[in-house]
Amino acid sequence: MEVLVAGAGPAGLATAAGLAAAGHAVRVLERAPGLRRGGGAVTLTSGGTAALRALGVDVADLGRHLEGLDSRTDDGRPLLRVPLGDLGRRWGTPTTSVLRRTLLDRLAARLPDGALVTGAAVEEVEPHRRRPVVHRADGTSAAADVVVGADGERSPVRRCLRPGAVPARTGWTTWQGCSRVDHPLADGDRVLFMTGPAGFCDLQPAGDGLLQWSFSTPPGALPASTPAGAAAAALRERFGGWADPVPDVLAAVLGRPDDAAEGGPTGWDHRTAPVPAVWGAGAVTLVGDAAHVMPPSLGQGVNQALEDAHALSAALRGASARDVAALLRGYEARRARQVRPVALLAGSEQAITHRALSRGVMRSLPEAWALGLWAGMVRRSSAALSG
Asked: Are 151 and 289 in contact (CB under 8 A)?
């Protein structure tokens, strides 16, 4: 079949790579003049790397493999420890921290020559024709057997399918960057997550001496519209009194009082939306944030996008245009059941898990139980691990 994919982020490139490998003729339409290779590092769980492997991407040398996740209160008291390496060895797929540009390049390399078209903004889709029609901002149009919206949380494709489905802000904001830091964390293999009344802090190695860092603030504290210099000063003030290593990291990545250091901070406001049972129509469907927006609290956005790509590619393997609509609705129903619980958890984590952790409610949870809870979340939300 002929397939048009709107958007060349991880969701779009992974979907296109999977569908091309399944024998379909794929074109990816990206509104930017080239691949958007910024954004620091992303964390891929065992489910995300399993989906990549199913799509034919080698994950053995991809990013910095992570052995554990340590959670502490803002004053340094231990909360939870999750041995991520044990889980990776159990399933044969690691948890890894990888630069977003590295992931994009790895996925783009699996596309056929000429499949990626940049500077091609999709503005509108007519989903109810026998072959849906895509209209671009330059006035040109094209029809295809299948159209996939992989165009993010503000998706024009989703707007044409479900005009009233607009993600809502939760009030929380994350400020992040990826910087070269002379600190043992940057060369290690463990994620450090800290929480307190001021918000969250997440620090993880990204390879080659780089540290991916993020600070999340509660509603009203520091919206993403704040200028970078003012945000840097506010983050130093808000989190500077936390236990080691937060003050050292803040000094290293946001040390200049008049501006942000190289690599950040970049802020974005958290958004969420209910996950519908069906998110497509006719021969048009969605993947990634276009289908299910969720806050970044659990690091599941990219992982669930890769799971979508794997599931959709598997659903359409060997398919023809005459039965594609039923196959797409089946894909959406299965993925909705898998994604909905993790999306709800990511949204409720802002109010519930944050308070439970910061007040020490979960401090006595044994490591084996913490691993079981994490493993259960990853497996239940994974198309690749569940088969």
From this structure: no
Distance of CA 309 to the CA centre of its chain: 13
Contact predicate 307/13, CB 8 Å: no
Contact yes or no for 294/300 (Cβ under 8 A): yes
Residue 161 CA: distances (Å) to CA of 6, 17, 147, 156, 290: 14, 24, 12, 9, 11
User: What CATH number labels 2-167+273-386?
Assistant: 3.50.50.60
Question: Would you tell me how many other CB atoms lie within 10 Å of the CB of residue 268?
Answer: 13
pLDDT higher than threshold 50 for residue 259:
no
pLDDT of 258: 42
Query: Where do the structural domains in the chain lie, given as residue ranges?
Result: 2-167+273-386, 170-270
User: How far apart are alpha carbons 188 and 211 in whole angstroms?
Assistant: 10
Alpha-carbon span 308 to 334, nearest angstrom: 10
Q: Where are the alpha helices (DSSP H) in the chain?
A: 10-21, 46-54, 84-91, 100-108, 156-161, 228-239, 246-253, 301-315, 324-348, 353-358, 367-380, 383-386
Task: Give CA–CA dist 226/344, Å, rounded.
Answer: 28
Give the sheet arrangement for strand 116-118, strand by strand. Answer: 116-118, 25-30, 2-6, 146-149, 284-286
Rounded CA separation 4/12 (Å):
10
CA angle 166, 170, 174 (to 5 degrees): 110
| Arithmetic mean of pLDDT, 304-323 | 95
pLDDT in tens, 291-301: 999 998 888 99
Q: pLDDT per residue over 223-240, tens digit each?
A: 999 998 899 999 999 999
CATH class of 170-270: alpha beta
**b/e map 59-77, b = 16+ CB within 10 Å:** beebbbbbbbbebbbbeee
Same fold, 2-167+273-386 and 170-270: no
Q: Could you read off the pLDDT of 9-49 as tens digits, one per residue?
A: 999 999 999 999 999 999 999 999 999 988 889 999 999 99
**Comparing C-alpha atoms, which of 349, 344, 351, 377 is closest to residue 275?**
344
pTM above 0.85, yes or no: yes
For the stretch 140-172, pLDDT in tens is: 999 999 999 999 999 999 999 998 888 999 899
For 167-196, how does the pLDDT look when each residue is reduced to its tens digit (9 = 90+)? Answer: 999 899 999 999 999 999 999 999 999 988
